[in-house]
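In response to the reviewer comment on reproducibility (Comment 2.3), we provide here a single inverse folding case reported in full, input and output, so that an independent group could reproduce the run without further information from us. The structure tokens appear first.
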């Protein structure tokens, strides 16, 4: 029917595709759900930490953490950028560790708001590093899944599915924020979501890399 035809057109390449493609797609989707749920939870913690600041201080802290994150991330990536090609599984492991450390650290800002900028800045560095790491691993996966001249199409299809997973994860995280208003209690959920994130992404790539 029309709905199934639309769904297939949305997620499947137009021609032949690698037998591992569907497995990668479903686990990558699930992994993005968990990662985005974590993002929604820590974002609420972070905003709470700067809620009592003046308007200009909120702006300085919020923008400042991103500046620290971008510059710090660039410096570290200039040193380790070639590692993804040499050993992608190790690079993925480091990306997972760095991402989870980033989530945990930024969730602490609501408990010690006085040190918001250094904590959130370090967290932003870790987040930028992890996203670049995942991007590099995803690029290698797409290259392995490619049947020849379909790299751009695969990238667009996978991006669509991952974005849908991310949106679902944000809704999930928002629901958790509403159901569990206490920041400390909510922070205890983050490691479990992190384990689920790591497990599902490893399932996505287990037969590819």
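Designed residues, in position order:
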């Amino acid at each position: 029917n029309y709905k199934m035809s639309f769904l297939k057109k949305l997620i499947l390449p137009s021609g032949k595709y690698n037998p591992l493609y569907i497995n990668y797609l479903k686990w990558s989707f699930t992994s993005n759900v968990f990662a985005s749920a974590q993002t929604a939870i820590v974002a609420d913690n972070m905003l709470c930490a700067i809620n009592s600041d003046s308007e200009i201080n909120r702006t300085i802290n919020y923008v400042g953490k991103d500046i620290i994150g971008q510059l710090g991330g660039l410096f570290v990536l200039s040193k380790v950028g070639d590692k993804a090609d040499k050993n992608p599984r190790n690079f993925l492991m480091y990306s997972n560790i760095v991402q989870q450390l980033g989530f945990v650290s930024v969730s602490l800002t609501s408990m010690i708001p006085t040190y918001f900028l250094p904590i959130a800045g370090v967290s932003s560095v870790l987040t930028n590093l992890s996203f670049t790491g995942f991007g590099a691993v995803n690029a290698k996966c797409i290259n392995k899944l490619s049947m020849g001249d379909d790299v751009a199409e695969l990238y667009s299809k996978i991006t669509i599915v991952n974005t849908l997973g991310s949106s679902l994860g944000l809704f999930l995280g928002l629901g958790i924020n509403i159901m569990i208003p206490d920041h400390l209690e909510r922070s205890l959920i983050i490691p479990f979501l992190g384990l689920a994130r790591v497990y599902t992404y490893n399932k996505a790539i287990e037969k590819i890399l």
